[in-house]
Amino acid sequence: MMTIEKEKNNQKQQHIHFLEVNQFKTNIISIGFRVPLTRENATKTALLAEVLKNGCCAYPSRRAVSQKTDDMFGSVFDISIIKKGEEQVLFFYLEFVKYKRELMEECFVFLQNMIFAPIQQQKGFSKQIVEREKRILEEKIKSRQDDKKEYAKLRCLEEMCKEEAFGIFADGYIEDLSQIDENILFHHYQNIIKHTPTEIFLTGEKTQKEAMLDFAKRMPFESDCAWKTEKKVNQQQKEVKQIKETLHTAQSRIALGFWTKIQPESKEYAALLVCNELFGGSPASLLFQQVREKEGACYDISSFLFRLQPILMVKAGIQKQDYDKAVEMIQKALKMLQQKKVEKEPLQEAKENIVRYYEAMKDSQTALMDFAWNEKVLKTNRNISQFVAEIKAVTAEAVQKSAQGIFLDTVYFLQ
């Protein structure tokens, strides 16, 4: 069973969400700072996550942090950057053993130290730590090209969303690192703490709710929420953009970015999910059966949706000489969905596949929190059971209508 309870502390401008879950042996505290994703700040925010892992005043090294989490019955702690739509979320995560109130309080105090009392030197972070983490982040950014499938996806998004925040790389840019020092980074962190909306997600049993909410409310958040994300409306391009890049890969990759006319928060989104499943979401899909199996125009192929953006993308591995054929066949498969109503049996199978995926989320606390976070961002606030009911109610007519609102914007070719 899972229920979501929300509380807003107006004085401190934070939202606290309690997810009642009974089947797990651990609790989770997650705290996310919703930072608007901008080209100016993306690298600084990405670097922050790594710098902050180096400890705080109470635990002034990675080793001290690790020792403390071990002492808390092997609690799991991490700081990361999560891209959520047009936001970079600076995300603090702590998972700990249930049923020990003293441990619960200790965990909240630990997080408070890590967030509000980072290691400082004069008016900034430690210069030595910042410079070391800059070098590590530079290597991480360089390694983007190592995974050609992921790189093609990211580059397609970057070209497709050049005027949108969603096209910005959330893990930063090498050319920006030289402009960041320990003082600039610390000032950026202070701005995040003081001016960005904060979301606190807690998981636990009903009997733990009161204590967890009480500890969360004691944390010294003082954000005025002045730093907010502005959502842009996407416009259809007059011509399809075609981007070609050469990296001398053993296998060429293509990524096709489509805009959809269905916004992620709309009631029609369930139909779009089913449409995507039929299009390229499984081995029984049109793309797999038509483009790969029948025509042999690719090695692998799939389509997927971005949950917080009205974007559908197709990814495929191809031979260089099959570029035109593959792009043409992908568009033909989409036209089949747009022009012909789907039959009852494949429609039911597609819905069942999606329902299984969402039902499986109930076996993972992190998946439950991610679902709840998306619902919070979209302001729809459904639980998984409600969402599944919407999927089960999707009709063939709704699927066809959703397909008719999909249009190609960008084709990215990596050869």
Brief synopsis:
This protein has 415 residues and is α+β, with helices and mostly antiparallel strands. 44% of the residues lie in helices and 22% in strands.
Strand and helix map with partners:
Blueprint: E1 2-9, E2 14-21, E3 26-36, H1 42-52, H2 62-71, E4 76-84, E5 87-97, H3 101-116, H4 127-142, H5 148-160, H6 174-177, H7 182-195, E6 198-204, H8 209-218, E7 241-245, E8 252-260, H9 269-280, H10 286-294, E9 300-305, E10 311-318, H11 323-339, H12 344-360, H13 365-378, H14 384-392, H15 396-404, E11 406-414
Parallel strand pairs: 2-6, 7-11
Antiparallel strand pairs: 1-2, 3-5, 3-6, 4-5, 8-10, 8-11, 9-10
Helix pairs in contact: 1-4, 3-8, 9-12, 9-15, 10-11, 11-15, 12-14
How big a fraction of the residues is strand? 15-25%
For the secondary structure, the number of strands is: 11
- The topology string of helices and strands comes to EEEHHEEHHHHHEHEEHHEEHHHHHE
Radius of gyration: 23 Å
Most strands sheet: 6 strands, mixed
Mean pLDDT over all positions: 94
Distance between the amino and carboxyl termini: 48 Å
Number of helices: 15
Major beta sheet, strand line-up: 1-2-6-3-5-4
The quaternary state of the protein chains shown equals single chain
Low-confidence stretches: none
Helix percentage: 40-55%
